[in-house]
Each structure stands twice: as C-alpha cells, then as structure tokens.
Design goal:
Blueprint lengths: L2 E8 L3 H10 L10 E3 L2 E5 L6 H10 L4 E6 L11 H6 L15 E3 L2 E4 L9 H11 L5 E5 L12 E6 L4 E6 L2 E6 L10 H10 L5 E4 L6 H9 L4 E6 L2 H13 L6 E5 L2 H9 L5 E4 L9 H7 L5 E9 L4 H14 L5 E14 L2 E10 L1
Parallel strand pairs: 6-7, 11-12, 11-14, 12-13, 14-15
Antiparallel strand pairs: 1-3, 1-4, 2-3, 5-6, 7-8, 9-10, 15-17, 16-17
C-alpha cells in the first residue's frame, strides 16, 4: 500500500478540509480517504507548501500535515463506445455498430450502416465521449469518387468541419477530408516505403495527394529528390503547406497536373523509384511508370484493389504482363503483401518490383 503526504484533521472538519484540498488541486484521486479514531487522513498529491499549510491551518486550526499509509481506490473501467450505446439502442442493433473508425487528427470518420441512420447522432456523441481528443465525428455519405478521389461526409457530432492537422511517424499533415483523399490506415505503408529509399535516389510519387509518401521519404533521407504529382489543385495546395510544415522544401517538388502528361514532358527516364498509390486504376498507368523509370531500371511500388481468391499472385501476374507490354520487364518481385482489407473479401495489395 502506498505511503503518501496527507492532511490529518478531526472528523468534524473533514468535509470542509476535503473541499479546501480540492480547491487547491491537491487531492490525490487514486487513494482512499482514511479514518483513524476521530481523525480523517486526506491523501495529497505532494507535500504542502508553507503558504498552503498556513491557509489550511487558518481555516482549520487543528489541521496537521503528515504522511500516512493509504489504500488505493479500485476504479471502475471507463465506459466503452458499446457500453454507452447499449443504453441508447435497441438490443438487435448493437451488432450493427461500426467496429472501427478512421482517426485523422481530431476528426473521427465512421461508416454508419443504413439500419443505424436514425441513431447516427447518438453514435457520434458516444465517439466523442470515449475519445477525448476527438472534436468532430463525420459519417461517410458516399464512396470515394471522381478524378479527385473525394467523398461526401456528414458531420454527426462535435464541430462541423473537415479540416484538421494529422500527425504520423514524425510528420504533420494539413488535411481537408472533403477536398483531398487521405487515409490514416496507410501510415505503416508510408513509412515502410520510405525506409526502402536509398540516399541519392530520385522518386516520382505519381498520385501524391497531400504528400504522405513524398514527405515521409524526404524526412527520412537527406539526399533525395521527390517529384510529387497530383491532378487535384486542392491536394497540391495542401501538399505545399505540408512541404513547408515538415521543412522538406529542398527535397520535394510538387507538380499539379495529369501524371501522364507530366511524366512525358518533364519526368521521362528520371526515376530510380516510382510510387503508384492509386489502387483503383494503377494498372492503367503502368506504362507511365515505365516511362518515368530510368533506362537502366528502377523500383516500382504498385498498388491495386482485388477480390480474387489469390490476391497477391494475381496482382503480380497483372503487373508483369502490363510491364511486358511496355517493352520492359519485371526483373524481380522484391515483395508483395496485403496492405489492408477494404471490404469483405476485398483487399488493397502492394507489389514491389525491380524493373529492367
């Protein structure tokens, strides 16, 4: 049992003493107040200063500071998201509650099943209550769509906003979830690829967004040149802010435009490595990646969505065939892995390939 500084007062002054100790911010909430004979022993967070001791003794003449052996309080576990909603929702709907959320800065993004639509505000409030750093809860109101890869979002609790600052592996990102795609679920992938980059490389990030691959690479390597290309002007605006915020202006060059045209006119044959994180359509841009890679060869990080029974084997075969059509070849598959599940029996996969 812990020994702690305490205030000893006669029992009849206990209520007044506890109130004063709380007002001074000195009550230790982890320990139980103890009664011995006619005295209360009140646990303190630290020793009293001379002025605090004087204040207490003026209010309660017989108050004494001392040390005492206390018992620790057994605190109930904090309520969970499901605990709170179990009191609000019909029992048959509990199983439909979202099992996960995307946390981007101080924003939580949920996918609310249709059967819970009328309860979405209560769900949002429960997320706020159980995640104290979250200030806004958004519900997905559409799939990712359009050439800018954005989705509609509804604010269901907290501040009605889509703009935040997200921190990830030592980098900070200004994000607007309504204007540019960003997924915190790719954080491990961002840092994995960055650690594979060697000093002195030139990297083309073909679908850069707000810059999570490009900036992570530039933060980890002092002698790299990263060309970060995106078609979305809002993404490029945020990317510029993130380049400045992470102090990688000398290593990351943002380029607004269609990557097919940008590579053909500016970046043909410059890349030691290309990042192709557009899993919906990356197969359609393998020719562009081959054009960007140096004639002597380089590395391709190719992403795709797949729902076949052998996703990694299928992705490798598709990539090998697409590269061959560009009169280049996959010299070696360096790695392949499932990045994440995106739906039942649907995955995002990555193939790292050495291109000759």
């Amino acid at each position: 049992m812990p020994i702690s500084p305490c205030l000893r007062v006669p029992k009849q002054y206990g209520e007044k003493a506890i109130l004063l100790i709380k007002q001074l911010g000195l009550l230790d909430p982890r320990l139980k107040i103890d009664q011995k004979n006619s005295n209360l022993h009140i646990p303190l967070l630290r020793e009293l200063s001379a002025s605090e001791r004087k204040t207490l003794q003026e209010a309660i003449f017989s108050a004494e500071s001392c040390v005492h052996v206390f018992s620790e309080k057994i605190l109930p576990p904090p309520k969970t998201f499901v605990d709170i909603l179990g009191e609000e929702l019909p029992p048959h709907l509990i199983a439909s509650l979202p099992h996960s959320a995307d946390f981007v800065g101080d924003i939580a993004v949920l996918e609310i099943p249709s059967e819970l639509e009328s309860y979405k505000q209560k769900i949002g409030e429960a997320v706020l209550e159980t995640n104290k750093r979250i200030r806004t809860v958004l519900a997905k109101a559409s799939a990712v769509m359009g050439i800018y890869r954005t989705r509609k979002l509804d604010a269901i609790a907290g501040e009605a906003k889509t703009v935040t600052v997200h921190k990830e592996y030592g980098c900070i990102y200004h994000v607007d979830l309504s204007k540019a795609y960003f997924s915190p679920r790719l954080s491990n992938e961002h840092v994995r690829v960055a650690r594979l980059v060697n000093e002195g490389e030139t990297v083309v990030d073909m679908f850069a967004g707000v810059g999570p691959f490009a900036i992570q690479i530039a933060r980890q390597r002092e002698r790299v040149r990263v060309y970060a290309v995106d078609l979305n002007p809002d993404a490029i605006e945020l990317l510029n802010k993130n380049i400045a915020a992470n102090r990688v202006v000398a290593r990351v060059t943002p380029i607004l435009g269609d990557v097919r045209r940008v590579v053909h006119t500016r970046l043909a044959g410059v890349a030691d490595r290309v990042v192709m994180n557009l899993p919906e359509k990356a197969i359609e841009f393998v020719d562009v990646a081959c054009e960007a890679i140096k004639p002597a060869g380089g590395i391709m990080h190719y992403y795709e969505f797949t729902n076949v029974s052998d996703p990694l084997k299928t992705a490798k075969i598709r990539l090998i065939e697409a590269v061959k059509r560009r009169n280049r070849k996959v010299d070696k598959v360096l790695a392949s892995r499932i990045v994440r599940a995106t739906a039942p029996f649907t995955w995002q996969v990555v193939v790292d390939a050495k291109i000759a």
